[in-house]
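SAMPLE LOG
Freezer: B-3
Tube label: C17
Construct: single chain, 283 aa
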Amino acid sequence: MIEREVFEMGRGENTGVLEKGATPPCSITPVVFNMTKQEEEECWNAKQENIRVGQAIDIHVMEGDSHLFEPSVMKESAIPRDTLMQVGLQLAYYRVAGRISAVYESAATRRLQYGRTETIHSCLPSTVEFIRYFSLHSSSMQNDGEKQKKGQTLLRQALSELRSHQKDCSFGRGFDRVMLWLHTQYTSRTGHPHPLFALDCVKHAYRYRISTSQATCRLAKGIGFTPSEDDGYGICYSFGSAGGVTATVVCGPSSPTSAKDFAAVIAASLYDLHQLLPLPSHC
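STRUCTURE (predicted):
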């Protein structure tokens, strides 16, 4: 049975959020790792690889159209800016790489005591379905009402499901903590990893070629988010009060494009999504 603290640490009985000064329902148990010599060596090699990638990255600061994320328009259309941005990033990557990739978006669970963190896996099946359909039919949508309507429906569905997933993660209901428990507990009890982690689909799910994080305006400009893979991108972004978006784009040494070129594709992808959605006319 999955240990209680995986789900309950720092949560209240009803709301899932601890009131200030409340006693947590269970104590915090530190996780102690007894590393073998081989594991220590692997950690050292990983550190050196991270340094190597960091020295070879390319950085570009993108300042997008000031009207793409106008707050009043987003609110009236019931479209969260961060959710639309995530779909735009995935569409941009598909355009430059010709494939779908796992996406990392950080989720700070500040609503929970002790500030737990969680991973938002933004590449959902509904998002993939929309991106593939839009990429295939975008050129003919302007003259084909049925294709345009289906594209809008798929995009709305992708935005809705991704927003729901983002909310779950922000309240500590993501699945990465469960996966961590499965990996550590199963390994400690059996002496070998769970067979699930040997599956190709699981391995690919944790190869993030798009690593993202939303930050405050004063931090996003010039502060990069290092890509997790040599051929990936890191994007740290923020939204201005007037509706603009600022993003620092970082690309790895083997990425399909330069950071500047990828920033241009991101801007074009966001514009295309903006044009597809039936937004209020005053935008």
